Amino acid sequence: MGLHPARALRPARTLVTAAAAFLLVATGSATADAAAQQHVSYLGLDFSVPADWPVLDLTANPHTCVRFDQHAVYLGVPGPDQDCPSGLVGRTEALLVQPSDATATTSVENSAGRQITATRPGVTISAAYGADRALVTGILSEAGLPAPTPRTSTGLVSPRLATAGVPSTTTNGSGEGFDACSAPSSTVMSAWRSSYSNVGIYLGGSDMACTQPNLTADWVSTQAAAGWSFMPIYVGPQAAFGELTDPSNQAVTAAQDAIAQATNLGFGPGSVLYYDMEAYSSGQGPAALAFEAAWNSELHKAGYLSGIYGAAYSTVQDLVANYGNAATPDVAFVAKWDNTDDTSLPVLPSAAWANHQRVHQYSGNVNETHGGYTLNIDKDVLDVGVAGAAAVPVPNRYVPAGPTRLLDTRNNGGTIAADSTYTLPLSGVPSSVTAVVLNVTVTNPTDSGYLTVYPDGSKRPTASNLNFVPGQTVPNLVTVPVTDGKVSFYNRFGTVDVIADLFGYYTTGSGNTFTPAGPTRLLDTRNNGGTLGADSTYTLPLSGVPSGVTAVVLNVTVTNPTDSGYLTVYPDGTSRPTASNLNFVPGQTVPNLVIVPVTNGKVDFYNRFGTVDVIADLFGYYTTGSGNTFTPAGPTRLLDTRSNSGTIGAGGTYALPLTGVPASTTAVVLNVTATNPTDYSFLTVYPDGTSRPTASNLNYVPGQTVPNLVIVPVTNGKVDFYNRFGTVDVIADLFGYFTS
Question: Cα separation of 121 and 108, whole Å?
């Protein structure tokens, strides 16, 4: 890999062949005229290339490095043991023409890899290009080859259709490793096995410089059987080269191509795929981070894990500064040439990538000989143990349940201390559960702090689900993925009691599908004289939903309470549960999302003390018929206006492009937090491109931090955040999405 810590972009290396390797099949006038051409005739092909391009005979010089970072024409079959420098990065116009068993005339382009592969009977041409695609297509046209057609297999491979040739755990590894520009032959790999057990291999990409004649699915299987582990590396567009013009979309294309290439080699879902992001200048960091976030997301959607390779004090330094955000990969691959084969690095905080998630490239561009075979390599040490953990996304359906109380630390002596985690085994859900919907309430906090709810056994995210101050009681609906039948509750400061009520779960088995709706206001007791008195119930007939509805998604807001109390929302015609959905004090306005089962077309609202007004806005519903299915995701931070100077002013709207979700997304599940408000105000989250509804999702007072779960329809890949008064910062974390 080419740009390393404290190093400038490597100067272009000269070709490793001697002058005798040049084969000018036909001559031209090689003058100072830049337009001078030379004619090449080989295997029945006749074409012209610029006169200053070397033409190399691979049969006469089988150790020639076939590299696409320099202009050249290579004639013949690349040798299995090429003499390539380890650190080549980049791609320009070059051709490899070799005999093959091709029987048809074709021309196919992989634009993600900037390469055209053309065939005629008996010959295959691999034509790479950089900035001058037209030059390459002109050469191919002169050779009598058709215009290239786009490759159709580059798109995202369905994980359920992908067949893994090797276990995904072969991308775990520990101890010494190396990466070479071109995958070594099986003979060399065998000779080197006693000294190394991990090898970096280059899958493809628009800036992959070396060809890979040895790298096939059979080669991967053979090396895996010999005990090798792998670091599959993709070298796509680079920030350092000014190529990141549309980072998020470029990353999606690169990730899809990487998945296709990995699948062809036998690496299936659960494998770690690394992106090589070479060292860049400080001003290029935002584009690199946007690219890395979309790369991670696209891999995760297909069930793969992500790794990012980069220099310690550019790429990795930026990843550390944004640790826990969407750009955070599953594995950090740090290039720091300090000749120390250790994954404990000053640039990495001890708590970051701490669970077997590190690779350290500690030396580079060195020659080593083992078993009589010499390679130019970069040297690595690995501590990677996360492969195999990625889940293959499958459609999930919702099953209403309860509400059932699963946890109350006031009764079981489980009050959560500062910087402590409580792990809750889930009862009342099947083994096929993929996510649970919990109404979580914190009470009796002794300090200002926050609570994070996340899948047990996974890395704790930076996202918080509830924020509180001493003595406050705060509820919030949580949709949390489940991986091992448990969920964890983490408290940052002081002590706090936690109550968790199960309202439903998502499963890969039978269940209900979701239909986004509205937001539509169904109830506002301020307008209909229906203010709820103490110990009273209001029954709301549901409008705008079909007769077969099994549950509704409501954003419920209480306002004007005259006493401290709570509100319970439950199915009409059933016994009132002990669970509360909202807790409040006199004069407070509090919203919370509610997913409530429906049995007879109505839902009930019960108020315990004092009087209170209630507002209910419909955001969607579940039915047993056709609709949208759910995919748990993250939690992944999509927005933090504190970091991007996007603080929302009075009457202002922030449009958030959604990353990490497919184009078919119909709604997203976001935990939205408002913080640093300067005035009494509210926040509305709604589909971009639609009229702003009157519904509010969060209400706040100056200085308050307020979270709320939001299920918001998506119409054009964006959602909007509207703030009414003052200024406010907004944080949005993705917990999942619905697709049609």
Answer: 15
Q: Which range, of 26-30, 192-196, 360-364, averages the lowest pLDDT?
A: 26-30
Asked if residue 516 lies in contact with residue 628, where contact means CB atoms within 8 angstroms, the answer is yes
| CA 202 to chain CA mean position, Å | 21
Strand partners, 552: 596, 621
- pLDDT at residue 544, rounded to an integer: 80
Q: Cβ contacts of residue 62 below 8 Å, gap of 6+? A: 79, 81
Tell me, which fold does domain 628-740 have in CATH?
Jelly Rolls (2.60.120)
Domains 513-623 and 628-740 alike in fold: yes
Which among 256, 252, 183 is positioned nearest to 218, based on CA atoms? 183
- Parallel, antiparallel, or unpaired for β 357-370 and 373-384? antiparallel
399: left (phi over 0), alpha (psi -120 to 50) or beta: beta
Torsion sign across C-alpha atoms 454, 456, 462, 466: positive
Q: Give the max Cα distance, the chain.
A: 98
Q: How far apart are CA 707 and CA 698, in angstroms?
A: 7
Q: How far apart are CA 592 and CA 468, in angstroms?
A: 15
Q: How confident is the model at residue 26 (pLDDT cuts 50, 70, 90)?
A: very low
Of 212-226, 417-431, 479-493, give the range with the top mean pLDDT: 212-226
Backbone dihedral region for residue 662 (phi beyond 0: left; psi -120 to 50: alpha; all else: beta)? beta
The single-letter DSSP state of residue 315 is I
- Residue 20 DSSP SS3: helix
Mean pLDDT for 687-713 is 88
Inter-residue contact 258 to 234 (CB < 8 Å): yes
CB atoms within 10 A of CB 296: 27
- Distance from C-alpha of 612 to C-alpha of 604, rounded to nearest angstrom: 14
Q: What is the residue extent of each domain of the chain?
A: 19-150, 168-384, 513-623, 628-740
This prediction has a pTM of: 0.56
pLDDT digits (tens, 9 = 90+) for 562-588: 999 999 999 998 989 887 888 888 988
Q: What is the DSSP string of 522-562?
A: EEEHHHHT--B-TTEEEEEE--SS-TTEEEEEEEEEEE--S
Q: 117: which 2 tokens?
A: 């592969």
pLDDT, averaged across the chain: 87
Domain range 513-623, CATH class: mainly beta
Nearest residue to 387 (alpha-carbon basis) of 343, 321, 426, 331: 331
Distance CA 85, CA 1 (A): 10
- 262: confidence class by pLDDT, cuts 50, 70, 90: very high
Nearest partner of 722 among 670, 650, 672, judged by Cα: 650
3-state SS assignment for residue 597 = strand
Q: Strand ranges (DSSP E) for 43-168?
A: 45-50, 55-57, 73-75, 94-99, 106-110, 115-120, 123-128, 149-150
What would the CATH number be for the domain defined by 168-384? 3.20.20.80
Percent of the chain with pLDDT over 90: 62
